[in-house]
Each structure stands twice: as C-alpha cells, then as structure tokens.
Amino acid sequence: MSDSVGDRWVVVGLDNGGNANNATVLDSAGGFLVEGLLESPSRVKEGPTVAVESLAEAFDNVLATTGVPRAAVRAVGLDTPGPASADGVISTKGSTNFVDPAWRGFDVRGALEARLGMPVVYNNDGNAAALYAHHVHFGLMGASRSSVSAIVGTGLGGGVIEAGRIVSGAAGMAGELGHVHIPMEGLLDGDQATPSCNCGFFGDAESVASLTGIERNLLPHWLAKYPDHPLAAEGSVATAAKLVRGLGEAGDPLAVKIFEQQATALGRLFTIAANFTDPDAYFVGGGVVQASAAFGQWFLEVVRKNTNLREEQQKVAAFALVPDLDMAGARGAALAARQSLPRTTT
C-alpha cells in the first residue's frame, strides 16, 4: 500500500456485500493502492441508515490506510448486489441481501453521495466485476473490445461490456444474465424436473448455475440417484450444497455431475450472448472457479465446449476466468467511477 499520492487525484471503490464492505483506491496513473482485501462490516441487515454509515466508515478507513487526503478524491464508485436500478435504487421487492423492509425502493447511491458530499457512481456487483475482468484482460485495448461475464454465486450475476464500458440498459437491468432462459434439452438428466428460480422463472440460467440452483434443483435430484452418498446424511440440503464444491475438486461423481450441468448451462447462456453481442471475450467467475486451478480450468473448458460459436467467432473469441475475484467488485467500481470523470481531469 502507498503512504502518499502527493498531488495526484484518486477515485475510491466500495464493494458492498451481505456481510462486508471491501474498499480500494485507484490513482490517476491507473494503479490500485490496495493490494488485497480491506474489509469492514457492511451491517446491511440492520437497515439502510446503519449500512450507509458503514460505507462511509469504509471510505474513511481506506483513505487512512493508504494515506490519501480526502481532498484528492474526485469520485466514489459503489457496487451492491442487485436487483437495483441504474441509479442505485434498490428494487421495491427487496433482495436476498437487503431483507429489511426499509431497503425497498431505497436510493443507496444518493444516500451515500449525500453522506460523503461527493459524486457516487453506482453499478451492481456483477457489472463491476465484469468491468474489472475486461480491464485486466484487454489492458490498453479495452476501449475497443467487448465482453460478457457470468459470475456464479448465491445467484448468477453478470455483465456486458461494450467498448470498455458497462452496458446498464434503460432501467439498469442489462446484464441480468441469470434470468435469461436457456434450452434444457440435453442438459437435464432423463427424469430431472425443469429447474425453478427464486425469481419465479423456470429454466433460466440461474436455476442451474448458482448455489441456490444446487440447493433447490440439482442436489435433490442427484442425491436421489446416489442415495448412499455422504451428503445424504447432512442435516439439510442447504448445508450439503455448500460442500459440493470441495467434493467436485476431489472428483466425486455426484459433484462432477452437478458442475457439468452448471458449466453446460453457462455455455448455453454464452451461445445466446454470441448471437446478441458477439463479444471478444467470455469471462467466468465465482466460487466454483476459485477452487483449485485445475478444477477452474476444467470448468472453463466445459463452458467453452458448450458455447456454440460460428467458425468465424471461434477464431477470435477468448475464454478466461475473472481474476482477483475477491477484489473485482471494488476495483470494477473504482474503474467505473474513473470513467465517469471529465476527460479534462488531471
């Protein structure tokens, strides 16, 4: 970490999660001043008033840690889990992370901007991670490239980047890849029921490629096929679902079946993306690919094999894992804040 940035300006990135806020600083030379996680409690379950104050504390903490004066900050990038509007208004239906009723329809971007007294640029966490992956992969060529990212977590996040910038859409809902319907024929086992999603859809990508998808749809089916499997003895399906990744790394047949279905689902999702955006790169992130390097590369290869590209697209498209996923949200949020600044900023 840097002790001082002298007269250089900076932007701050704040990644808000269900349990923790992570923060970083991006300086005017394009360098991140925080190497690893710099976390503090997010307190989102206590409602928006407490949570916004916690974000302000994370902001103050990252400046103190890096030795950056407040006057040097030109803007703040904020990301949160969705769903939320392009302006950072949390869905009126709430969400998995924002369960307190006071969050429904709450303008988290505006509230933090008022609290800090400086511009705040908002994106959802999937878009922020997608922007960071794009930036790392393409470097100086990023402004002339496009990409699509899928981030497998509790749900399935994602992002679409065009010409180096996030495509947010009219209502801020662009890049909600998890709720795109994908073909199920050939993906599901012979007697496997069409998977359902928490959003009310059946057969969307998140219903398969997410931790919720494992718990709700995939694991119950495969446990019926493997009744003597050790996971059948777990106290709950939710507990068992969290153990699947480790078993997958070890080559457990049941776990491998589950991850093959998830990777196939992502390949089919990317096939749809190929016909809408024809991106230069497809990125995959999430806990499943943060396992061992070998397992992550195996998973990515299954995704690639199930992405049906035309010959012309195969010659130019890249497939890669989202790097530094723990930092991707905060760093992507900072990059978005930097992009929002006037070109005359020095």
Automatic annotation (TrEMBL):
It comes from the Bacteria. InterPro entries: ATPase_NBD, ROK, ROK_cs. It holds the Pfam family ROK. Gene3D superfamilies: 3.30.420.40. PROSITE patterns: ROK. GO terms for molecular function: kinase activity. The keyword Cell cycle does not apply. Keywords: Kinase, Transferase. Belongs to the ROK (NagC/XylR) family. This is Putative NBD/HSP70 family sugar kinase. It comes from Asanoa ferruginea.
